[in-house]
Each structure stands twice: as C-alpha cells, then as structure tokens.
Amino acid sequence: MTNVNCLQGIACPKCGNDAIINVEVRILAAVTDDGAETFGDMEWDGSSYTECPECKHRGTLAEFRVEAAEGQAREHQQEASHE
Ligand SMILES: [Zn+2]
User: Fold this and answer.
1) Distance from the CA of 31 to the center of ligand 1, in angstroms?
2) Are the CB atoms for 12 and 64 separated by under 8 Å?
3) Centre of ligand 1 from the C-alpha of residue 16, in Å
4) Is residue 16 pLDDT above 90, yes or no?
5) pLDDT tens, 54-65?
6) What's the 77 CA to ligand 1 centre distance in angstroms?
C-alpha cells in the first residue's frame, strides 16, 4: 500500500509495516476537576515518539521516514552535536 496522506513516506524501518503507526501527538485539552476533553488539531513532528504496532519497533517519527527528509534529519543532528 502506498500512503498519500498522513502516512506519506512513513513506514516501519524494521518490518516495513505502513498500514498503522503509533505516534505520540501533542494536543490541547480542556481540563476540569471532572476530567479532560481534547480539542483542536493534533500535532507531531520528526522528533515525536513513534512505535510500530506490528513488531513493536520504537524510535522517533524521523526514523520511520522512508523517503526524503532523511538528509534533513541528519543535518539537524549534526547541528545539535556542535553544541
Ligand atoms: Zn514494524
């Protein structure tokens, strides 16, 4: 299956699964004493915690990227190592 929307270019680097990927997202929640209700858009990026539900491989979303963006992620890592 070729993903063309949310999972475009994303697949498990270990088992190749690209049907469903678990990604840690950021989302706002209205919290009251009774509980919490989420609202608004979910956000994630290359550094979001990601895991494969098929083989349990874990990493960041950037590590699950199978095309493009890889060079970009490396550049960011090099920048970080200079600090
Ligand atoms: Zn996998």
Assistant:
1) 34
2) yes
3) 6
4) yes
5) 999 999 999 999
6) 24
pLDDT of amino acid 69: 46
Domain positions in the chain are: 22-81
Ranges assigned E (strand) in 1-83? 22-23, 26-32, 35-43, 49-51, 58-60
* Ligand 1: centre distance to CA 62 (Å): 14
**DSSP-assigned beta bridge partners for residue 23:** 50
Distance 18 CA to ligand 1 centre (A): 8
Task: Specify the pTM.
Answer: 0.71
CA-wise closest residue to 16 among 27, 28, 7, 25:
7
- Cα of 65 vs centre of ligand 1, distance in Å, is 13
pLDDT recorded at residue 23: 97
